[in-house]
Every structure is written in C-alpha cells, then in structure tokens.
Design brief:
Blueprint: E1 2-4, E2 7-24, E3 27-39, E4 42-51, E5 57-66, E6 71-80, H1 83-90, H2 92-98, E7 102-103, E8 108-116, E9 124-132, E10 135-137, E11 140-142, E12 145-152, E13 155-165, E14 168-177, E15 185-196, H3 197-205, E16 212-225, E17 228-244, H4 249-252, H5 255-261, E18 270-280, E19 283-292, E20 296-305, E21 310-318, H6 324-332, E22 338-346, E23 351-358, H7 370-378
Antiparallel strand pairs: 1-2, 2-3, 3-4, 4-5, 5-6, 6-8, 7-10, 8-9, 9-12, 10-11, 12-13, 13-14, 14-15, 15-16, 16-17, 17-18, 18-19, 19-20, 20-21, 21-22, 22-23
C-alpha cells in the first residue's frame, strides 16, 4: 500500500485475496481466489477463480471496477454456472426475464463486457454459449444448443443459435426488448432441417403417437409480446416427406371418406407435404397446405389459432400424381378428379366435417378397385350360370292334357 498522506486519491494497493465458504445474495460460495490492485479510484481483480461447488465455477483474466461511475468490466471470463443462480446474482428482473429458458446442466459460457453496479441502464455484455443442454423452453426440449448473446441495457440480441432438434438441426436468431411499454417484446427467425415429426409431436401434444415424417420449416416472427402467446405475427413455410399423418385427427378424420372411395387410400403414406403460411395475432392462415400420396392429393385452405380452433376447407383429387397409365385414366375422368370438398371446424383434437361437395356414388364407379377396372377393359370372366334349376316333383309335374271324348 502506498499513498500521499495529504492526498488519498494517490492511494495504490495490491495483494492476493482468498476466501472460503461464504455467501453473496444468499448464494453460497465455496472458494474465491483473486489478485487485487487499486489505483486512481479503479479497483482491479486478476486471475479470478470462483467456485460455487464441484461442478459450478467461474474464472476470468480480469475484472475491473470504476468506482465513481460504478461500472464493472469483465475480460475473458469463462463461466460454468447454473443460469438461474447466475441471473439471480445480477438482479431479480434479469432472473425473471431469463427464467423460462432452462438448462438441466450448467452451461459453459464465455463472458466479456461491462455491467453497472447499481442498475442496467448502461450494461453491455457479450456471452458466447460454448456448450449448453439439455435445454427446455415451453414444450421444446433440445439436447444441446450453442449461440452468441449480446445484452445491451434492456435488450438482448441472440445470433448464430444452433441446436440439435428432434433428430435434425435448428438455427436462428432473436431480439428481446425487456424495457418495452407493454412488457417484454421479441421477434425471432428459425430454420429447422431434417427433424423427425414423431418426437416433436410427442413434446407438443404431451403424449406418444404413431406419426411419421421428416420436416423442414422456416419461421419468422416479426413481433410478439411475452405477456401473451396470442400476440404472435409473422410468416413461414413448411415441408415434409415420407410421412404418416392419419393418426392426427385433422387428417385422420378424412380416413373414412378415402376408404369409401377405395380401400387403402385412407392409410397411404404421404410422399410429400408442403405449406406456406402467415400469422396474425397467433392465428395461422394458409392457402396451400398440400399432402401428396401415390394416388391422392389433399389440399387445405384455412386457419388454426393457438387455442387449436380450426376453420378450413379440405378438398381431395384422385390419380393426378399417379403413374402414366393412371394419369391417362385420370385425364379421361378430368371433370371428376376432384373427389370431395369438406368444411372442417372444431379443434385440432376434435375436428368436425361439414359436407360441401361430395361426388355422387354413380361418379365413383370409375374409382372401384383396380381389379374391377381391369375387368372393364379385358371383358373379365364370363359370368357362370349360378341360377338353381327347378326340382321336378310329382306335384310340380304338369298334368297330361285330357283326351277329348
């Protein structure tokens, strides 16, 4: 320690501090070792080693505190710490904002930047998530995520977000404004590739299922409020391949109709599905949701909201995407390839059908099983005479005509 007796602003100090088994803001700390320096009203810490327990710790090359403005500067920090506890140390507002985003294990994060001692009016922190997971938000469960976060005052910018997503990969970015007048406002963009439909729907529906398919989607939410899930606005696209969707009530409700046209149609695999959509106040609208099987094409036009209420029209066309000979047959019956049209209401779990335009049974004759169709062209087997012959008995034998006298 050195200073001029008449001027304490010239105070300079240095040393090494070691603490064990203490608490800060009700958070227990096992160990802290740090090099200490002080000069010109600037307090510096070096070679920081902070351990909460055997698995949670934080190290940093340096932390500096400018006493007059009350600012803390962090250089080359590496934190392996529970997110809830770490944000709780920063402050209750930060903890509340981050609390819905949960890591089962403490993530490994690089930290650098500046944070105020008293409030967050001029914070500027950079986080690089090197390893995190399992991760949970709402009903989404990801085994691993990485990304970069930039916290500036009351805003959070997330970039280069990458995660394992139900057998595939999710990438995206997001922006959060925690100081907005109506509560936290946010927007985000995500791209999902090669993800499996079954485990995804298991988490979303909170029950097991037999659905199958590989999905790709692109979702942009341009504005939303954290206070309500009914404030989403945005747009996107979705694609699926090699799927089986008939156990989903929205699609499975069509099974009896398809089976009535031809046995097996209602259980065909979906070779391809696609849709574009836009979202207004958490109501999703689409004009081109289309599912293609080897023998039928289904098209949905309508909406579904975040309470699962459905208002749509579904129509089906037969044979248009089948092999050449069936396409030719379809061409011959072009006026009738549109096999049905229904209005669909109710909910995703309990949809209701309202017949809008059904093909008459007479028109369905060309769509009998193929064996019957083949017989129309080949003449089929000659119909055997299966009528039972009358049995002649004495009682039934005709009487002989009477002889004239």
């Amino acid at each position: 320690v050195a200073a001029l007796w008449t001027n304490w602003q010239t105070l300079q100090a240095g040393g090494q501090l070691n603490f064990t088994n203490f608490s800060y803001q009700d958070h227990g700390i096992q160990h802290l070792s740090v090099g200490l320096g002080y000069t010109n009203e600037f307090l510096s810490f070096s070679a920081i080693d902070l351990r909460r327990n055997a698995t949670e710790n934080a190290i940093a090359d340096g932390v500096g505190i400018a006493l007059k403005p009350g600012l803390v500067y962090i250089t080359n920090g590496l934190v392996h710490w529970d997110v809830g506890d770490a944000t709780g140390i920063i402050g209750p507002k930060t903890k509340e904002a981050v609390d819905p985003y949960r890591f089962s294990n403490p993530p490994l994060v690089e930290v650098r930047g500046m944070i105020p001692l008293k409030d967050a009016e001029c914070s500027d922190l950079h986080f690089k998530l090197l390893k995190g997971g399992p991760f949970n938000y709402w009903r989404f469960n990801l085994p691993e995520v990485t990304g970069e976060l930039h916290w500036v005052t009351n805003t959070l910018v997330i970039t280069n977000l990458t995660g394992l997503f139900y057998g595939g990969v999710v990438r995206g970015d997001a922006f959060f404004d925690f100081g907005a007048t109506n509560g936290t406002a946010y927007r985000f963009h995500t791209v999902v590739t090669n993800s499996s439909l079954s485990p995804f729907l298991t988490d979303m529906l909170e029950r097991t299922n037999n659905h199958q398919g590989i999905i790709d989607c692109d979702l942009s939410i341009t504005s939303a409020q954290a206070r309500s899930m009914k404030t989403w606005n945005g747009f996107g696209t979705a694609r699926m391949r090699d799927g089986f969707l008939w156990d989903l009530p929205l699609f499975g409700i069509m099974t009896p109709v398809l089976e009535g046209l031809r046995p097996g149609l209602g259980k065909s695999r979906v070779e391809e599905g696609s849709a574009s959509y836009y979202i207004t106040n958490s109501v999703i609208y689409t004009a081109d949701l289309e599912l293609k099987t080897p023998t039928i094409r289904m098209r949905y036009v309508g909406s579904v909201d975040f309470d699962a209420n459905v208002n749509a029209t579904v129509e089906g066309a037969l044979f248009r995407d089948s092999p050449l000979i069936i396409k030719w047959f379809g061409y011959l019956t072009t006026p009738f390839t549109k096999m049905y049209e229904y209005d669909v209401t109710g909910t995703l779990s309990e949809p209701k059908l309202d017949t809008h335009n059904l093909v008459p049974k007479l028109i369905q004759v060309p769509f009998l099983p193929f064996k019957a169709i083949k017989s129309l062209f080949t003449g089929g087997d000659k119909k055997k005479d299966t009528e039972p012959k009358p049995v002649v008995t004495p009682e039934s034998r005709p009487s002989a005509p009477e002889k004239k006298q």
